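Sequence decides. Our protein:
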Amino acid sequence: MAFDIPEQPQNPGPFAEQHGYNDIKVKTYDYDGQCVSIPLTVLLKDNGTAPAETNIKLNVLYRTLSLKSVVIKVYRADVPFSPFREVGEISHTHHPRNKGLNWKNTARSNRMVVKDIDLLANRTQWDSDVAALGRFEDFQTTDWLHDNLLYHKRRSKTSPSSTVTSSVPDSSRIWSIYESIQTYVILTIVGICIGTTAAVLNVMTEYLSNIRTGYCTTALYLNRNFCTWGELDEHQATTWVEYSRFGVLNYAMFITISLVLALTSSKLVMHYAPLAAGSGISEIKCIASGFTLKKFLSFATYSLKSIGLPLAIASGLSVGKEGPSVHYAVCIGSVISKLFARKVLKTHQKNVWFRNILVAASGAGVAVAFGSPMGGVLFSVEEISNMFKLSTMWESYYCSLIAVATLQFFDPFRTGQVVLFEVIFDQDWHFFEIPIYIILGIFGGIYGIVVAKFNIKAVSFRKNYFNDFLRMDMTESMQFLFQECDEHPHHNICNLESKPEAAKAIFSLLWATVLRMIFTVFTYGCKVPAGIFVPSMATGATFGRALGIIFQLWRQNNPESSYFTSGCLVDNKQCITPGVYAFLGAGACLSGITHLTVCVVVIMFELTGALKYIIPTMITVATTKIINDKWGKGGIADQMIVFNGLPFIDPHEEHNFFGHPVSDAMTIKVVSLPLQGVTYGQLMAILKETDFQHFPIIQSASKPLIKGYIRREDLINVIERFAGDPLTDTPCIFDNDSLSEDDILNFTDAVNTAPLTVNVYVPTEHVLDIFHKLGPGCLLVESDGLLQGLITRKDVLKYEYVLHHIDHDESIRIREQTFKYQEQAWEFISRIENSLMDKVYMVRNRLFKRRYSRI
């Protein structure tokens, strides 16, 4: 069923009056074949040519209405404010691969010739990137402005300073006291659950990682740490048996167990909880900004994420636990808050409350993953929350405190620490080391740019169709890469007395850096719970350690060089500490891949306790920040948001709409309701056959003067509360002045009589600021008080994508070339697979033939 949309007044509009231009009205056909008259402002120049912006308007028209064909009637007005006179008609059938149209000499009259109308001057490529915008419809938008107003209105009534509380009963006052402390009750429960989950997963991960190399003879369920608890030397313990004692079996067991763990994690995620794949930070940022993704924070997602995460990490995949820790922490916050508030809070209270719990839980997730409570707080503020509030930061602080305290109580590593490693650097830093810090910062920036770029290509390809430092766990490798070499070195990396040994160590570290980058590119984004924080830190640690060894050897070979005399004694062999460069390299790569700054600095300090190196860390991270701002395109989470077509308005990014007015981006597929004249049957037909969430209230169909708007949820609530069963012809009113009978559906109390409105000529950049700072569900677009359209955050994002991606021929050419290479690579892989399968079948047939011949 198609609904008529109020047309604009029959006048040429201010454009024709000011510039002598003309207007176009569009008649379209929907899937039912019924005609819908929709006003579309397209300005014709004096020579009858359409401006370049018209192609954007038509693209938006197709996108918002999902039309297949359009009939455009061209009008002109000889005198301002006189009726339009038809000049000609243009028909167009939309095709996904239509590369351009050129309608010429199709509309003629004795007064005007419309020529060279090229409404699609540039090619239109509805490729996979644009099709990804269809995921916008999977998200529901939260009206933060409306919910906050109702939330604070309710709190003002129960506030002790309110004059209303003097007349309320004692039970209501007790309830108001309970409401004031309920947030901390929930945060306490959420923090305890997050800390408990983190402790269990840490033990599981360590156990599954250990059984790849050996087993415990006293109890198979114990990991290496617990199995050798009473032994003086863990490496000479008799209770833990290494597979290396059995020769070739060592490699066979290592590979077999790794494959089983990785395949199990992948199968669980793919078949039972697809939303548990990946990191989850990208989706959480979208949810915190006001979009809701169904089942992403469900208990099933939490369960499979918690099970699949230790399997994926223990398998040896280049993944980390930090991103997934944020996801399962937010799942815990979502599940507990919904169970707690199911029959306690109203919907608008749940939305406001849920956002605060979500941000606080995300900080607690990072806190337990790194053992960094203050780093978690800063992460929630810098990365997740799209607006800074002191109350939000305090709630995140409290939740992180409870979570880390719970993790400390369980002590999963039996070291009294909440992290696996802690280092102490005895040597002070020197000013002559600053160039090395800058080099590490440059490497971190380059690492972030390269890995993010190629990871997007690897994920796109996936969607369309032995080294010492790589074999061990990434966290364990960083544990000794950060350490100083003492008199009793615990690893061969400290035995650098001869040049061959030093060269071998440097080569191993650099080779591990390259392979770790490659593994991270292909692993992050695959169908297992996967984070990128620890792989990035491990990559930076290996590169930093290699650079530190090179710098140390240079100093040893040139002890009297003037470069070192400013703060390094000749007889001081430990003047250069390679572990420091591993520490700084890890921080640089973490900052480079996430585009976080203050949060990274604090996390590195809490992770290692190296407070003495605060200035070198700040120099390194600042250099990485400069490189990212100059050549980067945002952190990996932001780039995955764009790639996956997730709806997110980044407040830190510049959105250049080139002065386009809001009328270009607004949707004109609006169902408006007049103050009177609507029946219950008509209203139910609208609710059943449309999925619109906002309905503008206008004075009448002939005079669409804006009187307010009502949400779909409020319409349904009023209907459900109506006493009795309304008849089909029961009148519905949206204004108390309209009718006064009792047998009516009165929606007056649910109508927002002061909606946010913008003029059609307001720049789209200003509209974006309103959505970010106020968080309304929609804005009504008006001209002289008359309804012209409606715009939501989804409309702005769609229009921005169309504006910046569809019209870029060079980008389209590059994408086509990329897809071509991907198809060639897939064909190559398919040929290899077919060849291997043919050989497998051939060997199997031979075995069967021999068996049957013996029989």
